[in-house]
């Protein structure tokens, strides 16, 4: 399982804590190999936010009816189905009627972006993506929480059959597998990422809703050994036809062709030393808490 590097001792004084209780609720979505409520991952993040912002409501999304269902959802429940379930949950929660901030971990980052684009009500105010793969991945060097044999099977499946319909329906990671050596196959076969990135057809509501965000914050982990390429965490990706040369967001087709209106979205780009989702309490307090403290 992905274990987030969280310091157990407080790295600040009590005087530095925010005092207001008039905070927007926070909605969190976990990543692959994790669950809503493991005490060593999102459970500790929830506790940290509540300590820093007394009175805040923190909702850690659970997909399905149990923690086992939720854990397995990161591998085997299609993102479109998950996003639809989350949209219904958010719309039926009266405590979110005034808006909320969203905090996505790894693939939870692009899943929450899909929520922002497809489900504008209730309003998402700030979207914070920690290690999200917004242009997808091309490579699965490490596979959290699964055996090496299973990981190797997934890698082979993605390399040779990612865009087969049955693979798209079977494996979550296939839905954001982005092959830069065969862009046409990716755009035609990706049943999730190609849609939310307006790769084939431009859904104007996606751009319109994304531009409603106050801020879209993307965190890149500089020593990441799971996400390939690293720049996908900042919405960059490989140059078409290459799996080595990387383009920044501003040079990508999505940006230059205004396919998502990203040129007018307020985006903040943050860096964090460490491997995938490996951050300290001090870093989180300094860089993420201020976005959640806005009201």
Describe the fold and architecture.
This protein has 295 residues and is α/β, with parallel strands linked by helices. Helices cover 34% and strands 13% of the residues. It has helices spanning 42-52, 67-76, 79-91, 107-118, 148-161, 165-170, 183-189, 193-196, 204-210, 253-256, 281-287, 289-293; strands spanning 26-29, 58-60, 100-105, 124-130, 215-221, 237-238, 246-247, 267-272. The strands form two sheets. The chain has a six-stranded parallel β-sheet with strand order 2-1-3-4-5-8, sandwiched between helices. Strands 6-7 form a two-stranded antiparallel sheet. The chain is globular.
Content-based structural category: alpha/beta
Distance between the termini: 34 Å
What is the overall number of helices? 12
The pLDDT mean sits at 91
**Which stretches of 5+ consecutive residues score pLDDT under 50?**
1-18
Rg (CA only): 18 Å
Core attributes:
two-stranded antiparallel sheet; disordered N terminus; alpha/beta; globular; 295 residues; 34% helix
Could you provide a short overview of the structure?
With 295 residues, the protein is of the alpha/beta class. 34% of the residues lie in helices and 13% in strands.
Give the topology.
Blueprint: E1 26-29, H1 42-52, E2 58-60, H2 67-76, H3 79-91, E3 100-105, H4 107-118, E4 124-130, H5 148-161, H6 165-170, H7 183-189, H8 193-196, H9 204-210, E5 215-221, E6 237-238, E7 246-247, H10 253-256, E8 267-272, H11 281-287, H12 289-293
Parallel strand pairs: 1-2, 1-3, 3-4, 4-5, 5-8
Antiparallel strand pairs: 6-7
Helix pairs in contact: 3-4, 4-9
């Amino acid at each position: 399982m992905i274990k987030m590097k969280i310091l157990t001792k407080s790295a600040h004084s009590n005087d530095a804590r925010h005092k207001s209780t008039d905070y927007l609720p926070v909605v969190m979505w976990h990543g692959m190999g994790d669950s809503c409520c493991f005490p060593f991952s999102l459970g500790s993040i929830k506790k940290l936010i509540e300590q820093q912002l007394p009175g805040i409501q923190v909702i850690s999304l659970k997909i399905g009816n149990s923690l086992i269902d939720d854990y397995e959802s990161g591998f085997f429940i299609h993102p479109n189905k998950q996003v639809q379930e989350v949209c219904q949950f958010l719309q039926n929660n009266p405590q979110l009627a005034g808006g909320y901030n969203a905090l996505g971990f790894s693939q939870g980052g692009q899943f929450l972006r899909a929520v922002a684009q497809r489900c504008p009500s209730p309003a998402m105010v700030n979207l914070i993506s920690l290690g999200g793969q917004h242009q997808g991945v091309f490579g699965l060097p490490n596979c959290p929480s699964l055996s090496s044999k299973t990981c190797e099977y997934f890698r082979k499946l993605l390399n040779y059959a990612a865009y087969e319909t049955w693979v798209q329906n079977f494996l979550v990671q296939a839905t954001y597998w982005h092959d830069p050596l065969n862009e046409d196959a990716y755009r035609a076969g990706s049943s999730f990422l190609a849609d939310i990135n307006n790769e084939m057809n431009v859904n104007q509501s996606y751009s319109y809703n994304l531009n409603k965000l106050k801020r879209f914050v993307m965190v890149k982990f500089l020593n990441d050994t799971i996400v390939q390429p690293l720049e996908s965490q900042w919405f960059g990706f490989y140059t078409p036809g290459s799996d080595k040369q990387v383009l920044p967001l501003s040079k990508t087709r999505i940006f230059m062709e205004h396919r998502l209106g990203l040129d007018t979205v307020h985006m903040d780009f943050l860096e964090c030393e460490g491997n995938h989702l490996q951050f300290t309490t001090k870093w989180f307090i300094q860089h993420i808490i201020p976005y959640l403290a806005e009201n």
